[in-house]
Amino acid sequence: MVKHIVLFKFNDFSSEVEKKEKLNEIKDALLNLLDKVEALNSIEIGINENPNEQFDLSLTSTHDSMDKLKEYATHPDHVQVSKDLIRPILASRSCVDYSL
After folding, report:
1. What tens digit of pLDDT does each residue of 65-88 get?
2. Backbone dihedral angles phi then psi of residue 44, each to the nearest 5 degrees
3. Which of 23, 24, 28, 29 is nearest to 11 (CA)?
4. What does the H/E/C string look like for 27-70?
5. Residues whose CB is less than 8 angstroms from the CB of residue 35 and which lie 6 or more positions away in sequence, other chains included
6. Max CA-CA distance within the chain?
7. pLDDT, tens digit (0-9, with 9 covering 90-100), for 30-71
8. Distance CA 91, CA 58 (A)
9. Residue 88 gets which letter from DSSP?
10. Among the listed residues 82, 88, 75, 41, the one whose alpha carbon sits nearest the alpha carbon of residue 60
11. How far apart are CA 43 and CA 45, in angstroms?
12. Which has the closest alpha carbon to 26: 59, 52, 72, 69?
């Protein structure tokens, strides 16, 4: 079993309302991948509530193997969410993958 943890920092938004709406849109789109991507065992998305921290959103998912993680990462539905919702506003990203 592999755990995949990603932290996202997004570009500044024009308002807190816009930021909250966009983060919730990303959260919903990522959570919907659970029903579409067989290589995805579980997924949890967290929106940061601590203004003293630099990252805006976290993703934690589990996969049966590193090959299944790669399958998830390259799945067309995952690629679409990344391309349409995440990449256009992404400032930085950090990731760690480890075996359970």
Report:
1. 999 999 999 999 999 999 999 999
2. -135, 135
3. 23
4. HHHHHHHHHCCCCCCEEEEEECCCCCCCCCEEEEEEECCHHHHH
5. none
6. 40
7. 999 999 999 999 999 999 999 999 999 999 999 999 999 999
8. 14
9. G
10. 41
11. 7
12. 59
Strand partners, 98: 3
Residue 31 structure tokens: 């959570």
* Both tokens assigned to 11: 């570009």
What's the whole-model pTM score? Answer: 0.95
Confidence band, pLDDT 50/70/90 cuts, at residue 89: very high
Residues 6+ apart with CB under 8 A from 81: 26, 29, 30, 33
Q: Could you identify the residue written with the tokens 């816009």?
A: 18
In which residue are the tokens 């807190």 written? 16
pLDDT band at 97 (very low <50, low <70, confident <90, very high): very high
Rounded distance, CA 98 to CA 87, Å?
24
Q: How many CB atoms lie within 10 A of CB 63?
A: 23
